[in-house]
Amino acid sequence: MKRLPPEYAVKLEVNLKRKISPYLTDALNRSQLYVDIADSYEACSSFVSLIDDFLSRDTMLADQAEAFLTDLDVHLLEHLAYHMESLRRLIPDALDSFDYKGSNSN
After folding, report:
1. Torsion angles phi and psi, residue 28, rounded to 5
2. Model confidence over 3-14: pLDDT tens digits?
3. 46 Cβ contact partners less than 8 Å away, ≥ 6 residues apart
4. Is the overall model pTM greater than 0.70, yes or no?
5. C-alpha separations of 7 from 32, 35, 60, 83 in Å
6. Tens digit of pLDDT for each residue in 70-94?
């Protein structure tokens, strides 16, 4: 499974914050919002890679199928679930922040 380099996640966080932070409250800008988005992106990218690698195999042994399901559990169900729980709280607050600060549709 191909993983994104760690510096990619950091760059993603910085770019997200640069583009979104002017519209959010200070509390949201100090929150885990950007980390959660970047890590969710990384988990989803790993998931796509995991599926592609799995489907590209001509033959499949039981231990390979088990390893696939274990990786799926760790990379998607556990890792992504952690960030989704946080984002479920942060995204509504972020959307409310637009009402609070006023949005510029230009």
Report:
1. -65, -40
2. 777 788 889 999
3. 1, 2, 3, 4, 75, 76
4. yes
5. 17, 13, 34, 19
6. 988 887 788 889 999 999 999 999 9
| Total Cβ atoms within 10 A of residue 63 | 8
Distances (CA, A) of 31 to 20, 91, 92: 13, 11, 13
- 34: exposed, middle or buried (Cβ count in 10 Å: 0-12, 13-18, 19+): buried
**How far is the C-alpha of 31 from the C-alpha of 21, rounded, in Å?**
11
pLDDT value at position 60?
Answer: 84
| SS3 call for 18 | helix
Distance CA(38)–CA(27), nearest Å, equals 18
